[in-house]
# Entry
Amino acid sequence: MNRRVGFTTPLDDGQTPLDPEEADGLIPAWIATRGDLNVAEQANIESSYRWAAAARRRGMEVASEDFLRGLHGAMLGDVWRWAGRYRTTERNIGVAPHQISMQLRMLFDDVIAWQTYRTYSVEEQGYRLHHRLTAIHPFPNGNGRSARLMSDHFLTQRRAEPFTWGAGLPREESRQRYLSAVRAADGHDYAQLAAFVRA
# Structure
């Protein structure tokens, strides 16, 4: 499975200290910089693949709230106390906190309909699932990474190849193309996202 799911902070920013608000909810006492945080989060994300594989073996549906919360908890639970819990504060992106559960239920109902009525190919379902998750923005942090992993596990559960997420591009170009593709999808133009997920 492709494991390039995070776009990390540039290396020259790795020694930037975390501010108190960023550090709220942090578990490991040794983390003091963004570089430290990147290392801790990446190790935790790697371990989440085992959780996801076990959940799929048990028959858990990937396109579900249980899988989403469990995956986010497995991805970041050794680093953040709030891992796997929906945010309770407003952000400059995403729906209002009180709408998160309802919007997720609607999304996962839509996924069922996409499959029942064969509205989209499995691949298109995967990137549309990703886009809707990022638009809802259910967690305090880690939304892009968890949405990319959800999409990959969704495809794997349906015996399709996980996305490459721009792995063939230079890192900064990959990040810029990803953000541009998500913004275009916000306007219902999925062409850039469709191209990026296989770049």
The helical segments are 20-23, 34-57, 65-76, 100-116, 122-136, 143-157, 171-186, 191-196. The chain has one domain: 11-196. Residues 6-12 have pLDDT under 50 and may be disordered.
